[in-house]
Amino acid sequence: MAAASTGVAERRTIDRIPESERHGSPINQFTLWFGANLQITAVVDGALSIVFGAEALTAIIGLAIGNLLGGAVMALHSAQGPRLGLPQMISSRAQFGVKGAALPLILTVLMYLGFAATGTVLSGQAINLMFGVQTPAFGMLAFGLITVIVAVVGYNLIHVIGRIATVVGILGFGYLSVQLLSHYNVAEAFGQKPFTVATFLLTIALAAGWQMTFAPYVADYSRYLPTKTPAPTTFWSTLLGSAIGAQIAMSFGVIVAALGGKFLQNQVGFMGELAGAGLAALLTYIVIVTNKLTVNCLNAYGGSMTMLTTVSAFTGQQRVSQAVRIAYIVAFVAASVAIAIFASANFLSAFKNFVLLLLAVFVPWSAINLVDYYLVSKEKVDIPALYDPAGRYGAYNWTALGCYLFGVVVQIPFLNQALYEGPIAVLLGDADISWIVALVATSLLYYFLARGNANVPKAMILPEDAPARA
Fold first, then answer.
1. 184 phi and psi, to 5 degrees?
2. What is the pLDDT of residues 174-186, one digit of tens each?
3. Transmembrane region positions (predicted)?
């Protein structure tokens, strides 16, 4: 295997990974996504189901359904990585056009910033508790610095952190679960509220939204796998790691919220108190930081790559220097830390609205990408054309962009958000099924309009297969 880095830092960015640099095993997808999901923000996501009025058992079942459905969607994106060897958002140019892909790209960067900021708030609290520091900015800045270092080193180190987070997370959450059973009557968490369809659908949406927000960058972390890696193996490794890790964390969140503890008021502090005093609390804070570091590095790495993809669409670059890559990572992390410092007071409320709103933006994008790749193009992509606005895919694909906007707009009557509730959501007893409507409607419309697309190549075209330009 040729080195994928020059010195310490990874050198590949938006260009295709050559076969000589492919390495790794699908099991790495399981550990990466398990570790990235078994973390405190997923605990908060699970707790939100109780905030929204769900009964604990039905919340856990609804979250499981959402994790499996949303996880299947994101895992289908992951399976594209070994085949294409490209960052996910570069490959989306095949659907939206080289420049047209910038619209969902900009929204994707905002998503990464939002998740990175919320993760930085919680990790900063844990670091401050570890060192006995009262200044919130201290922990956030320290966490940001660690994130920059790992993201700059890149792909291989991120996977190492994922493996560490898997082991640490299992031990940490296992211990916290024992503590929970020892100090609380867990049976009291169940049966507190009546079952309602609206809250059940909401819990499904919470978990599905959580999983599908990984879709725009999941292939970034499978693109170094050998080309011959079976797609089903990549799919199942990603799905199981992500869904199981998230389900454990979210179920924990459901129970601690239903028991009426102080978790919702002080998420990190509650975990430390539950662990016990002294060394146990310190180790719990280390677990929180380690597992948040995994997903925060995904955000920083993917966010910087998404910004590079956006800029390169208008500059014509196919590669960027290592210095530029590092500068983008530093800029992204600096922005996320700044947001965290100024927004931390309203973390829970902002995060709740943020997760649900993301569904409206990314479900249509995901539907178009998957329908095109698996049903229209049938896994055949002209990779050199992804960098050429005058090539096969053009600068803008108005069919895909129109379907994307349709997929966003069609959700409006079905939305149940903090700022707006659609009329159909009211008729359904406040149930939000907008993401299901968007997934189905966008998929059908795009397939109907794009089938028979003359731009589909007869076979996969790799850079070495493309004719030289005059």
1. -130, 155
2. 999 999 999 999 9
3. 30-52, 59-80, 100-124, 136-158, 164-183, 195-219, 239-261, 326-348, 354-375, 395-413, 433-450
